[in-house]
Predict the 3D structure of the following.
Amino acid sequence: MKSGVVVFPGSNRERDMLRALENITGSKPAAIWHADTELPDLDLVVLCGGFSYGDYLRTGAIAARGNIMPAIAKAADRGVRVLGICNGFQILCEAGLLPGVLMRNAGLKFVCKEVKLEVANADTDFTRKYKQGQVWRCPVAHGDGNYFTDAETLKRLEGEGRVGLRYAEGTNPNGSLNDIAGILNERGNVFGMMPHPENMIEPLNGATDGRALFESVLEAVA
Amino acid sequence: MKARIKVTLKNGVLDPQGKAIEGALGSLGFSGVESVRQGKFFEVELAETDPAKARAALDEMSKKLLANTVIENYAVEIDEQ
């Protein structure tokens, strides 16, 4: 699988993501600079975590209008898988590639801890290696992860099986609507989530529960 | 030409920062504060001299960047001198 990680000024999880992708896919991912206007030929584009542009204006707002974004939108239109983690999720929402917005955590605090995620839909390109309803461990680290959207969009997301992951067992760390941790676009090839599966892939991380997420994409594009 | 853009949270959108400020005002002894909502305020200077064109441009700027219209409303005000 050919993968790439987009790096914005203020991204800080690109190394974790590059390492995870190489570990799981067996091939070296490309690092893509935000100022580029074209993407290499890829099966998976990842927008990683961090604090792009210092979270100025709104989290992800400036990065979402960056030079590389039209190329990512075009790739998504072609069916290329796009994964946004944490700040990457915020950027995808701000760019309109996913609906809704990530607001300030309801508790106002930056949360950096482990949560439990429940697979709300195992029939997606990003979750197919999990079982429906499976609960897995994953770290979160964010100040703005409180997913919000209008009632109509929420109803559509739920009705169309586009909520891929939820915070399980009372571990919602941010006040997210319906405990939403990760959502899909309409076509199912763009996925955004606040938690960090790339930090749960080898025994050194304490668990390997995040591997299946990347292995799902690997299987989907094979 | 100078303009001001006010961005506010839509009704019904939870504002945890506003709530925290409301609580802080209460703990400072300001009684009777029933609600606080936090927003953003932008001062923009434009080269454009035609108010109608300026307003159209500011409207576009607000929609495309300054406000996230999923959760925020915006209001544009222009100094017409």
In short: The helical segments of chain A are 14-25, 69-78, 87-94, 151-159, 211-221. The mean pLDDT of chain A is 97.
